Amino acid sequence: MRLLIIGGSDAGISAAIRARQLDPSISVVVVLRDAYPNYSICGIPFFISGETADWTNLAHRSLVEIEETGIEIRSNAHVLRLNPESKEVLVGDSSGRSESMKYDRLILATGAQPVVPSLEGLSQPGVFQIRWMEDALALARFVDQRKPRRAAIVGAGYIGLEMADALTKLGIEVSLIQRSSQVLKTLDPELGGAVKSELERHGVRVLTGRPPESIQGNGDTLLVLGPEGLAVEADLVLVVTGVQPQAALAADAGAATGIQNAIKVNRRMRTSLTDVFAAGDCVETWHRLLETFVYLPLGTTAHKQGRVAGENAAGGQAVFADSLGTQVVKVFDLVAARTGLLNREALEAGFQPLSIKKELWDHKAYYPGAKKLIVHLTGDRESGRLLGAQIWGPYGAEISKRIDILAAGLYAGLNVQDLPEMDLSYTPPLSSPWDPVQMAALSWLDEKARIR
Ligand SMILES: Cc1cc2nc3c(=O)[nH]c(=O)nc-3n(C[C@H](O)[C@H](O)[C@H](O)COP(=O)(O)OP(=O)(O)OC[C@H]3O[C@@H](n4cnc5c(N)ncnc54)[C@H](O)[C@@H]3O)c2cc1C
Q1: Residue 80, number of CB atoms within 10 A of its CB
Q2: Cβ of 342 less than 6 Å from ligand 1
Q3: Residues 245 and 260: beta-carbon distance below 8 Å
Q4: Over the stretch 148-190, which tens digit does the pLDDT of each residue have?
Q5: What would the 3-class secondary structure string for 207-259 be?
Q6: What is the 3-state secondary structure (H, E, C) of 21-36?
Q7: How far is the CA of 243 from the centre of ligand 1 (A)?
Q8: For ligand 1, is residue 373 a contact (CB within 6 Å)?
Q9: 400 near 335, Cβ under 8 Å?
Q10: Active site residues
C-alpha cells in the first residue's frame, strides 16, 4: 500500500510515523513544499529572541531520524493538483518541472497560511509575515544585517505578543497595533488588560482600536498609517493577523469544505473523497462542548489529528476526541491560559453560565517564592457542569499544568463539584492541600449556593 502525505509539519509527520509504526510494510511518502520537515514553528519566536540560538534545534526530529523509520521525505515539492478519480497528484519542483505521483491512500496535512489583511504596502522590504521557517530565517537575517531599532507589529494575537516579547529582548523598541479594542481578544477583556499591562511594563507601546490602513516606505524607514492619526515609524514591520486553512487543493478536487473553507472531516479524519484523509490546520474540528464544528488551528490538535489520520489510513479505526481550545501563552513574565468556553461563549451556546474569579497563592505562602495567580472558572448554574476556565499569573506558577487539570475535567465531562474531590498532589513548595483550581471550584460552589 502506498500512502502519500501532503505536508511535512506537525500533522503530516505524526500521520506518517503512526502509519509506519502500525504497518511497516506500508510505503509512506511525505511531500512538502519547503525544506523543513517536522520543524516546530511554535518555536520561531524563541529562535528570533535568541533564547534558542540554533534554528536547527527547532526540529522535532532530524531528517535522518525520520528517514530511519522508513518514511520517504520529498522536500521542495509543491503539490499543484489532486485527482481523486485516478488517485494521483501533480507535484512541481523549484525548477519548474512536474511529475505525477500515485497513491492508494492520501492524507492532506497542508496546514494554514497567514491571513493577508487589506493593508497597502505589504510587499515592500522590511515587512514580514511569520508562519514558515523561511519567514523566520529571513527575519533573523534582516535583524542581523539591518539592526532595526524600532519595530511595528500589526496584530495582537498570541503570535504578535510572542514576537513583541522576542523583539524587545533584542533591544528593539516595539509598537503593537491592534484593530480591535483588546489584545488577545480570544480571552476575557480583564485578562486582555493584564496582558496589555505586562507588555507596557516591558516598554511595548500598545495601540488598540486602530485598524492600520497602509505601510509607506521612505528609504529604510516604514510608516504604518491609520485613522485617528495613527502613524508609527519603524525599521521593521511584522504583520501577524491570524491564519486561514490551506484547503484549495482539496476544494478544487471536490472535497467538502466548511467553516472558513477548512476541509470537512469526520472524527476518523476522513474527507468526503474516497481514501483521502485530512488533519491539522487545514481542517475544521468538532468542539466537545459546543457540539458544533469550529476552526481551531493549534499544534496540539494537529499532532493528535495527524496520528488518528495515519492510524486510519493504515487500516485502523481511531477516533479524534474533539477540541476544547486549550491554549497558553507566555508574554514576558506573564502566563495566560484558557480551556473550554468563556462566559460570553457559554451564554451564546445556550448554557446558563456562572463565573467566579479568585486570586490565590500558587503554593503555601510561607514557603519562599509564592506567587499570586488568578483563576476564572465558569460552570453551568443549573446542571453544575464545568464549562471553562482562564488562569493567569507569573511564569513559574505552573499555570499551564493547572489549566490542564481543568481541561482534563472538561474532557471527562466533570461537574464543578467533582473538582475539589480530585486527588491532586501537594507539598508546600508546589501547591496547597486544596490546589488553587480546587479552591476556585469551592468558591464557585459557594457562589452558586449564595445566589439560589
Ligand atoms: C509563530 C507560531 C507560534 C505558534 N505557537 C503555537 C503554540 O505555542 N501552541 C500551539 O498549539 N500552536 C502554535 N502554533 C500553531 C501551530 O504551529 C500549528 O497549529 C501547526 O504547525 C499546524 O500543523 P499542520 O501540520 O497542520 O500545518 P503546518 O505547520 O501549517 O504545515 C503545513 C505543511 O504543509 C506543506 N504544504 C502546504 N501546502 C502544500 C502543497 N500544496 N504541496 C506540498 N506541501 C504543502 C507545508 O510545506 C508544511 O509542511 C504556532 C504557530 C506559529 C506560526
Answers
A1: 12
A2: no
A3: yes
A4: 999 999 999 999 999 999 999 999 999 999 999 999 999 999 9
A5: ECCCCCCEEEEECCEEEEECCCCCEEEECEEEECCCEEECCHHHHHCCCCECH
A6: HHCCCCEEEEECCCCC
A7: 10
A8: no
A9: yes
A10: 42
